[in-house]
Amino acid sequence: MSADTSPTYRDAYARLSRIAAELETGEADLDRVLPLLEEAREAYAQCRERIEAVRAVLAGDWADGVEADGDEEE
């Protein structure tokens, strides 16, 4: 994790991948499934939050200085 203790997108995605792999084996103990799903929901929310933040920047700040044909405004 980073210095501010919030996981990076990469960290959260790695958690999702690890959880999916564990659940796909079908060998996860039933008592472990619910905690895994809770952890996956948290990691998914973190990934989605990061993706939405990037989309907002791309839709807003970057689009403000570019016309529809791709030329920058003067």
TrEMBL record:
Protein keywords: Cytoplasm, Exonuclease, Hydrolase, Nuclease
What's one GO-annotated cellular component?
exodeoxyribonuclease VII complex
Q: What is its EC number?
A: 3.1.11.6
Main enzyme class: hydrolase
Which superkingdom does the taxonomy of this entry point to? Bacteria
GO MF annotation list: exodeoxyribonuclease VII activity
Example GO BP: DNA catabolic process
The family line of this record is: Belongs to the XseB family.
For this entry, the protein name equals Exodeoxyribonuclease VII small subunit
